[in-house]
Amino acid sequence: MKVLIAGANGHTGRLIVELLGQSNRHEAYAMIREAAQA
Q1: What is the pTM of this model?
Q2: CA 26, 15, 12, 31 torsion-angle sign
Q3: Residues with Cβ within 8 Å of residue 5, at least 6 apart in sequence
Q4: How high is the pLDDT of residue 26?
Q5: Dihedral pair phi/psi, residue 20, rounded to 5°
Q6: Number of domains in the chain
Q7: What is the pLDDT along the chain (38 residues), one digit of tens a residue?
Q8: Which of 13, 18, 26, 36 is the most exposed place for a label (fewest CB within 10 A)?
Q9: What CA–CA distance (Å, rounded) separates 6 from 24?
Q10: Structural domain boundaries, residue 28
């Protein structure tokens, strides 16, 4: 499943991205405000 995480630079967003990144069942896509935040 593809999952879009809005606010991926925040505390909770980072944890979610990390957890989904460990899964082979999900693809995490991070949404951030500015390219400089990546």
Answers
A1: 0.69
A2: negative
A3: 13, 16, 17, 20, 28, 29, 30, 31
A4: 93
A5: -70, -30
A6: 1
A7: 999 999 988 999 999 999 999 999 999 999 988 777 66
A8: 36
A9: 21
A10: 2-37
